[in-house]
Amino acid sequence: MTHHVVAIVPAGDLDESTAFYALLGFSVAADFGHYRILEDGRGWHLHLNHMPGWPARVEDNPFGLYLYVEDVDAVAARVRDRIIEPGAPHAKPWGTYEFAVSDPSGVLVRIGRVIR
Q1: 4-42 confidence digits (pLDDT tens)
Q2: Could you read off the pLDDT of 67-116 as tens digits, one per residue?
Q3: Which residues of 14-38 are buried (b: 16+ CB within 10 A; e: fewer)?
Q4: Does any domain span residue 1?
Q5: How far is CA 82 from the centre of its chain?
Q6: Domain count, the chain
Q7: Is 35 part of any domain?
Q8: Residue 39 falls inside a structural domain
Q9: DSSP state, 112?
Q10: CA-based nearest residue to 46, from 64, 33, 73
C-alpha cells in the first residue's frame, strides 16, 4: 500500500454533492447510505459524510480541497458555469495553472497543475 491521504468532506445533500463531484471526474466506489466513497480511478479519493444542515450558511464552510490534474482545461470545461474567478483557469504567481469552484456545501475546490 502506498502512503496517501483521503479527505472526508461533510455534505448537506449527498446526492447533490455526488453529482457535483461527478462533473469533476469522480464516481461512487462505495455507498453506505450516509457515507460515500468517491474516486476517479487515477488517484483521487474523496469521502462524503452526510451532515444534514451543514453548514448553516454555505459561505461559512471552512473546508477546501486542491485537485491536481494534467488537463485543467478539460475539467474546467465541464464546470465552466461554476468557476468562481472570472477568466480562470489561468496562471497564478505561485506557479500553478488553476481555477476554483465551490461544492454544494461550500467546500472550496481548486483544480490545477504545477507549471514550471
Answers
A1: 889 999 999 999 999 999 999 999 999 999 999 999 999
A2: 999 999 999 999 999 999 999 999 999 999 999 999 999 999 999 999 97
A3: beebbebbeebbbeeeeeeeeebbb
A4: no
A5: 12
A6: 1
A7: yes
A8: yes
A9: E
A10: 64
Q: How far apart are CA 40 and CA 92, in angstroms?
A: 26
* Angstrom distance (rounded) from CA 65 to CA 1: 23
DSSP H helices in the chain: 14-23, 72-78
Could you list the residue range(s) of the whole structural domain that residue 96 is in? 7-53+62-114
Rounded to whole angstroms, the Cα distance separating 81 from 61 reads: 21
Alpha-carbon span 85 to 12, nearest angstrom: 24
Rounded to an integer, what distance in angstroms lies between the CA atom of residue 95 and that of residue 67?
Answer: 15
Q: Which phi and psi angles does 64 have, rounded to 5°?
A: -150, 155
In a domain, 107, yes or no: yes
CATH code of the domain in which 26 resides:
3.10.180.10
DSSP 86: T
